[in-house]
Specification:
Structural class: alpha/beta
Helix content: 40-55%
Strand content: 5-15%
Bound molecules: pyridoxal-5'-phosphate
Number of strands: 14
């Protein structure tokens, strides 16, 4: 069995989610008025109520989507459509996931949006909120970065934007099930999450959306999910999502402490056994993430060498047309190509053990030495 250290990419389904999915797999169309429709509807209603209770919102504010990517797209495009007549302006950050980055870019290139990016400092945290003092159709920021794990000042962002009545979308895909979330207390307009990041199935996500201002739909059809995300809902996956969320919230405190200790051990071990490393995960960060650059290497080779040693991790860098380039996140942190091109993201989760960390620490120094010698 490979040692899997890429939980930020996805994680194995929790047994409770598999059980919930199997139990509800026979559900028919929850929109049908007859008995089997009502039965499916009741499973879906239970899932919606569970999500609402765990994330601090009303059931009506829970919109099931097909992914985190779809939730981000609906929120950003939909809020832009709702508000762009008066303020065709968007505020974002340079470290967003492509689901946000490319959506904002599309609105700029094809729909005349003007875009301001909140700057990020060398630790990967949004450092200046002044751009929020200009009204916008939507401001969007991730709660924690998927590469470094850096936790962003989302409460401050929501508060600052409120003074201009700017709706705020929060991409909470990396934090859901890892940090406490109370949608109403946060005061955001919309929030995106994705089941497979907290042990639910791949292929189902969540958008929390206040009644008003609500995003305008970007797809059309039946009126499901308040018309915000039309299409027949996958009842079995919604039920599995709710079960996974319940378990991850219940285990959150204990898991955070356990993963912090493992992550700190990995970090200390890397720093003491390998020269010239740059730790890119700087507090406040998620306990699950450790992003490290090894100058003199390149990310793709590191992944292959690790894979050959039975360790699965990610480069945290994007591959553009076959060229291994440094990630936009490191670039925004002011790291240059020479230092950032050879980077690894280790992301830990509920099945990560002490032995997994020992195995990485046993292999990595020699592997970096080989990568540096070519
Ligand atoms: N936003 C962030 C911060 C992510 O990390 C991801 C997935 O890696 C997404 C959005 C997209 O989620 P999904 O894989 O469900 O489309």
């Amino acid at each position: 069995m490979p040692r899997y250290l890429d939980y930020a990419a996805t994680q194995p389904m929790r047994q409770c989610a598999i059980d919930a999915w199997v139990d509800a797999a026979g559900s028919l169309n929850p929109g049908s008025a007859y008995g089997s429709g009502r039965k499916a509807r009741s499973v879906l209603d239970d899932a919606r109520e569970t999500v609402a209770e765990l994330l601090g919102c009303e059931p009506i504010e829970v919109v099931f989507t097909s992914s985190g990517t779809e939730a981000d797209n609906i929120a950003i495009q939909g809020l832009f459509r709702a508000g762009s007549d008066t303020t065709p302006h968007i505020i974002s950050t340079p470290i967003e996931h492509p689901a946000v980055l490319e959506t904002v870019d599309k609105l700029r290139a094809e729909h005349g949006a003007t875009v301001d990016l909140l700057p990020v400092d060398s630790t990967g945290h949004v450092s200046d909120l002044a751009a929020l003092d200009t009204p916008a159709a939507v401001a969007t920021c991730m709660w924690a970065n998927n590469e470094t794990g850096a936790i962003q000042p989302v409460a401050d962002i929501v508060q600052r934007a409120a003074a201009q009545s700017t709706p705020v979308h929060i991409d909470a895909v990396q934090v859901t099930g890892k940090l406490p979330i109370n949608f109403h207390e946060l005061g955001a307009t919309t929030l995106a999450a994705s089941a497979h990041k907290f042990g639910g199935p791949r292929g189902i996500g969540l958008l929390l959306a206040r009644r008003t201002p609500a995003p305008q739909p970007i797809a059309f059809g039946g009126g499901q999910e308040r018309g915000i995300r039309p299409g027949t809902v996958d009842v079995a996956s919604a039920s599995a999502l709710a079960a996974a969320l319940r378990e991850s919230v219940a285990d959150m405190e204990q898991e955070t402490a356990r993963l912090s200790a493992l992550r700190d051990k990995l970090k200390a071990g890397i720093e003491s056994s390998i020269d010239n490393v740059i730790i890119n995960s700087v507090e406040p960060t998620l306990a699950s993430h450790l992003h490290v650059s090894f100058p003199g290497t390149d990310g793709d080779s590191l992944i292959m060498l690790l894979d050959a040693s039975g360790i699965e991790a990610s480069a945290g860098s994007a591959c553009h047309a076959g060229v291994n380039r440094m990630s936009h996140v490191l670039e925004a942190m002011g790291i240059d190509e020479e230092h950032g091109r050879g980077s690894l993201r280790f992301s830990l989760g509920r099945l990560t053990t002490d032995e997994d960390i020992d195995a990485v620490l046993a292999e990595l120094p020699e592997l970096i030495r080989r990568a540096r010698s070519v």
